[in-house]
Amino acid sequence: MRKYRSNASADDRVAFFVEVAEGLGLFSETAELAPPLLAQNEELERVNKERIGKERLLLNHRVKVRFADFLWDSAVRSLMRAAEIADGGTRGSVHAAVFPNGIGPVVVPSGAGQVAPAKAFVTALKASKAPGVDELRTQWLPKLEEALGTLETAVDRRTEAYGAVAEARAVEDAACDDHELALERVMGQIRAIFPKDKRTWNVIFPSSPRRSRRDEEDIDIDTDAGE
C-alpha cells in the first residue's frame, strides 16, 4: 500500500486522493470511505488556490515598492541638480547645505530601508536655515513629500502582503497535514477490511508522486530592506 511523500505538493496530494476515492468507490465494502476524502480534497484545493493568489499579489506589491523607490530617487536627484544650478553650476554652499553627507545616504538604501533616511532628509530640509535653501524648499519639498508618501504606502502594503503569504502558507501546511492524516486513517481501514490483500490495495492506491510540496517556486517572505 503506497502513499505520497511527506513533502508532496498540494496538487499531488489532491490527485492522489482523486484516485484513492475512485478506487474506494469500486468496492462495496469501502464505497462509504470515499466522500470524506473528496471533502478533504476540496478543502486542500481551496487553501492551495488562496496561497497561490496571495503569492502572486505579493509580486505586484514588490514591483510597486521598486517603482516608489525609483520615484523617490528621481525626486532627490532632481533636487540635487537644482541645488547645483543654484550654486552656479557646481557643488557649492547650497548643495552642501541640502546634502551635507552627499547624495549617497539619501538614495542608496532601497525598499523598507529607504523610508527612515527619506524621512530624515525631508525633516532636515524643512528645518534648514542655510542661505539659498528657501527657494529650493518651496519648489521641491511638496514633490519629496509626495514621493515619500508613495514609498511609505507601497512598503506598508508589501509588508501586509508578506504577512498574508506567511499566513496562507501556514494554513496550507496544516491542510496538507490533515490530508495526510486522513490518508493514513483510510490505509488502516483498508488493511482491516482487506487484510493482506495487496492486489486489492494496488487497485485502490496509485503510485506515489515524486514532486516536491511547493507547486511553484517559493517567494522569499523576508522583508528585506533591499527590496
Report on the structure:
Helix 1 (10-25) runs antiparallel to helix 2 and helix 5 (112-127) packs antiparallel against helix 6 (133-193). The chain has one domain (10-204). With 227 residues, the chain is mainly alpha-helical. Mean pLDDT is 91; it is low at 212-219. It starts with 9 loop residues before the first helix and ends in a 23-residue tail after the last helix. The chain is rod-shaped. The chain contains seven helices and no strands.
Q: Which structural class matches the secondary elements?
A: mainly alpha
The percent range for strand residues is under 5%
Number of helices: 7
Helical fraction equals over 70%
Number of strands: 0
Q: What is the 3D shape?
A: rod-shaped
Number of folding domains? 1
Unreliable stretches covering 5 or more consecutive residues: 212-219
SSE order in H/E notation? HHHHHHH
> Which value, in Å, is the CA radius of gyration?
29 Å
Fold topology:
Elements lengths: L9 H16 L8 H53 L6 H6 L5 H4 L4 H16 L5 H61 L4 H7 L23
Helix pairs in contact: 1-2, 2-6, 5-6
The gist of it:
This protein has helices at residues 10-25, 34-86, 93-98, 104-107, 112-127, 133-193, 198-204. The chain is mainly α and 227 residues long.
Keywords, separated by commas or semicolons:
227 residues, mainly alpha, 7 helices
